[in-house]
Amino acid sequence: MKLTVIGKYGPYARSGNHAASCYLVSEGDTNLVMDMGPGAFSRLTDIIDPRDITAIFISHLHYDHTSDLLAMRYRLEELNTKVRIYSLREDTPWFSLLFDHPLIEHIPVGAGQSVKAGSLTLRFYEMKHTVPCLAVRVEGEKTLVYTGDTLYNENIYEAIRGANLLLSDTSKPLGFDGPHMNVGYAKEFNERTGIRILSTHLNPDYDPAPEFENYPDIEVAQEGKTYEI
Ligand SMILES: [Zn+2]
C-alpha cells in the first residue's frame, strides 16, 4: 500500500505549485483519493488518469477539502467517465452543488459503516469539527487512518488500533484554538501507541517540523512524496 500526498495545506494552499487537502492511496489496481481541495485535481492528474480512480472519500464538506470536485467534473465530462464518491449526506445547497451530477455516483456513508473500494475496506469514524466529519480507516495489505479535520477525540484511538500509519490533522501550533489538533496531539498519539504519523493540514505560515525533531516516527507530510506504508 502506498500513500501519495497531493495537497497538504488548509484552509488554503501555499502560493506556487501546492494544493489543499488531497491524498492518494494506491494498492495494486485500486486508487482511493481522499479529499479534493483547491489545486488538487491538476496535481492528482500528474500521477493518475481520472479513469483509474476507484473511488473518492470526502471527509467533510468544507471548501478546502472539496472545491476541486467541481473542476474535476469538466474532465469527467470530456472523458465520459463516472466516479464514485463516499461522504456523509448533508441537506445543504453545497452538498447538491457538489454531488448532483450524472457522472458522480454519490454513496452516503456514516460512522460505524464500512464499504469496499477495490481491494480496500474503508471504515468510518465520527470526528469532531465545525461541521460533521468522518475519519476513515483504510484496510488492505496494510492499514492507514486519515482523520480528516478534527479536534481531539477518543474515536481516534479506536480507529488507529493496530494500524500502520496515521495521517492526521495535527500541524497547528501549540496554543491554536481553532477546530484542529495541534502538534502536541501527534506526539501524544505516537507516545501512547507507537504509531507512525504523517502530520498534515498545514497553514502556509507555520512549519511544525521543529516540534517533531525528537520523534523519529512523526513526519510532516510532503507534497508529491509517496510513502510506502
Ligand atoms: Zn474543515
Describe this structure in words.
By secondary structure, the chain is α/β, with parallel strands linked by helices. It has one domain: Ribonuclease Z/Hydroxyacylglutathione hydrolase-like (Metallo-beta-lactamase, Chain A, 4-Layer Sandwich), CATH 3.60.15.10. The chain has six helices and 14 strands. It has helices spanning 40-45, 63-66, 68-79, 93-99, 155-160, 183-193, and strands at 2-7, 22-27, 30-34, 55-57, 83-87, 104-108, 114-117, 120-126, 134-139, 143-146, 165-169, 196-200, 218-220, 226-228. The strands form two sheets. It has a seven-stranded mixed sheet. A seven-stranded mixed sheet has the order 7-8-9-10-11-12-13. Helix 6 (183-193) links the parallel strand 11 (165-169) and strand 12 (196-200). The mean pLDDT is 98.
Radius of gyration: 16 Å
Instruction: Count the E strands.
Output: 14
Number of H- or I-type helical stretches = 6
N→C terminal distance: 6 Å
**Secondary structure: helix percent:** 10-25%
Under CATH, the homologous superfamily reads Ribonuclease Z/Hydroxyacylglutathione hydrolase-like
